[in-house]
Specification:
The complex is a heterotrimer of chains A (236), B (393) and C (345). Chain A is α/β, with parallel strands linked by helices. Chain A contains seven helices and seven strands, in the order αββαβααβββαβαα. Chain A has helices at 16-30, 54-64, 93-96, 104-107, 159-170, 201-205, 223-235, and strands at 34-40, 44-49, 69-77, 121-129, 134-141, 148-150, 173-175. In chain A, a hairpin with a 3-residue loop joins strand 1 and strand 2 (44-49). In chain C, helix 7 (143-174) runs parallel beside helix 13 (316-344). Chain C is globular and about 65 Å long. The chains are: A alpha/beta (236), B mainly alpha (393), C mainly alpha (345).
Chain lengths: 236, 393, 345
Amino acid sequence: MADTATEEPDAPPPSDDLREALLADFVGHLGDGIADSHLKPGDDLWIRVNPDAWGAAAETLRHKMGCQFFDFVSAIDWMPSPYGREMDAEVDTILAAANVEVEAAEAAPIVQGYAGGETRFQVFGRAINVVDKWGITIKADVPEDTLSVPTWINTYPGAAWHEREVHEMFGVSFDGNVDMRKLYLPTDFEGYPMRKDFPLLARRVKPWPGIVDVEGMPGDDDEEEAAESATEGASE
Amino acid sequence: MSLTSNTGEREQLAYIAAKAADSRVNVEIETEGMTLNIGPQHPATHGTLRIIAKLDGEQVISADPVMGYMHRGYEKLTEVRTYPQVTTLVNRIDWLGSFANEVPFILAAEKLMEVEAPPRAKWIRTILFEMSRISNNLLGLGDMAAQLGAVTPVFYAFRDREYVLNQVEAVTGGRFHPNFDRIGGLKDDLPAGWIESSKDAMVKMAAACDELETLVMGNEIFMARTRGIGIIPAEVGLEYGLSGANIRASGVDWDLRRDAPDGMAYDEVDWKVWTHPDGDSFARFWVRLQEMREGVKIVNQLLDSIPSGPVMAKVPRIIKVPEGEAYVETENPLGVMGYYVVSQGDLVPFRVKIRSASFNNVAVVPWVLKGVYVPDIISILASLYFILGDIDR
Amino acid sequence: MSTSLLAVELAYWSETTLRVIGGLVAILLPAGGLVYVYLFKMMSFMQSRLGPMEAGPYGSMQLLAEVGKWLQKEDIVPAKADRQVFMLAPFVVLISTFLLILVLPFGPDAWFVDLDTGIYFAMAVSSVSVIGILMAGWGSSSKYSLLGGIRAAGQLIAYELPMVLAVLGVVIQAGTLNMNEIVFAQANGEIFGIDLIGNPYILTQFVGFALFMVAIQAELTQPPFDMPVAESELVAGYLTEYSGLRFLLFFIGEFATAGVFSGIAAVLFLGGWYVPGLAPEHDLYNVLGPLVLMGKIFLISGLIFWFRFTYPRFREDQLQRLAWKYLIPIALLNIVATGVLKVVF
């Protein structure tokens, strides 16, 4: 029975010391496998490992750092959408660029998020230490040529379905996970829907009115301010 | 089976062997297994989950869940919606705990924008969050009894749930899809007289807990059907990502409401995290019932101590979220739900990974169903308590 | 109902016609009453709802509406089903019910057949329904039906035994297998020399009564023993593929059998058509008896359905364990005790 009760005094933000120690610990265990890391004080820790070390990273988390709880595995496609950032402009960009094919994408640079990266696809996963109540997000680049990284299922069996989902949504495969049937999509579905160059057909057919829709609320006296901030935002 | 884990497999084999020893008499006769399709249309899966079960007699050799019949592609859809519009989508994920779906996303966006909701908003958020939990758990408890063949308790659950849903509706205007949470606070303040009527509803909820306890939990047959059935050891559960009441029923003392209460008002009230050492179907039912009780306690305390003030922080009218990544997870009624939000400084999220509770909770099903009998499939599924929208997203 | 009641000699054909009509009434009236009173109304009130309210005053005509609905529905036979077996199964189940009612006495002279081995006959023909259920399960060529049929067979066979053994105690005490004589034995009996209410065997055979009630609950596949039709596991078990008239027949069979078994329980343990205060030989019983029996049937069915709406269901193996490990030994002990006491007193 849990008798730990509750009433913690105004939870102080978890100190950076904790996460710095975690990072040092992780580096100590994995050594060369680590490519980069990002630490946001009081929030979270991102560690990017080399693709080959992706599986070893999970083992390190599970067996050496006590992260028993498997949270998730997913992937991200860093390529900016070739169809434009549709909500970004007052007129849906697709209306203007209806006939422009994917080459529009070449212009926009790929910008990776925390902990950097070199490739278009990245996988990221997370595990949590439920005893000490912290979690680490692990990232890895997915090599462009093979589009595959080692699997996590030998460490976290719960990763199996997540990897199947990533496979069908992004086309990233996982070495060692043989069961790569489609999880959500119909068996004969073609393409990888979560990739940025996979068009969302409903949106292609009927552009979203998007930002044009935003109206001032009745009784709202801050409209000028709102408009100001909007223009600020647009100019940024 | 595809799910091969070195530790899990070993324990499972030992488990099957032990089961077989005392239950299977025709172990030397090699018979061909029968494949039974449970679902997608089946009374027990409350939704469209399909389980392909290979049976030897009534014993399950392997069970393989098939999902996706309700996949709506929310992760893709969020990429073409502004941040405030996303909440409309995501409260359809776990439709019984709808408000609770919005909270982690909003918290993630708030973290990226570095705004904080005013105290009153936090209080109301927490109250509505717990009300989602109460209504969700209530239905789960009643439903479990129904799956075990007791038809009556589920009607009581449906009846009592209305009291909570009426309160949610009075604030948000929606029983199931409130779409009430906003970045920086809430859409509106509470209506007049709501605190009193909520207290009345909470009295009824406390009574509903007692009623369910006497009606269902003390029943000998219920005990016989749930005790020692579907045992999930803590280690296995954690490796499969089992969370919420399900993992607390395996004795893991981990509750994000207590351990990561940022943005909520849980650390302002006196409550307790319940765990159960057994890890069987009964334990999951028990923990869920206790959590409903705690929920009533939390709501009552919050209603007493609700601070005055605005419910909305100053945020720009058009919300642009600065570049960055944030992952926020909360203890939703079904378990840990998290949103990994990647922003590139646009009006729309660049990528949203939705970590839903039921998806991981059901991932353990192939492991736990091996070697059980057909009737136990139903009781185990009911005790894991999943919502199809939460699996398929 | 019977020839002796009318005190006139009838031709064989008219006697047969009368008996068929009487049999139908004796089957359908309790069945309909049970459905309305318990399934429609009591269950609804227990579940904080009203139940059918539209058809007729207080929904009393709902039953006719339901029957009309089922009759209109298409009678679907699955493409791969074993056609003859599938179509015959509901009739086999129903025949068992009709055979059961044959030996049930409604009054000192009101019965269909007065068999000297009445209760023995009843126990025997009650097993016929197993064949019908197995036919339904097998003939549907559906996995759910098959599982349901096999579960039903296992269950019904397992619970025949405690039922028969529970009845044996009554038979030993009454000293006869004839059901009408059992009623007379109870009516004319006395408790330690006081014969105010006769000697309903529920007082001396309470163990047997409890066993019998559990056993018929299982025989009727009512919760907590409803695994053959467990709706949350097997959809509807052996009924899964049935529709229209054939489903209706199964449905009638279920409730009619509940009525008949309650009748047998009433005869064995509650004194059948006898009410204290009126000598059992009185001719008035030929009219009053059926009403009294009906009241007792509803009393016992009330228990059956009360359990049905309250309890969750067992698992198949737990059910077998209950029958073989508990009910049968207890029944055997009961028989021994009854025999010893019979000799002693």
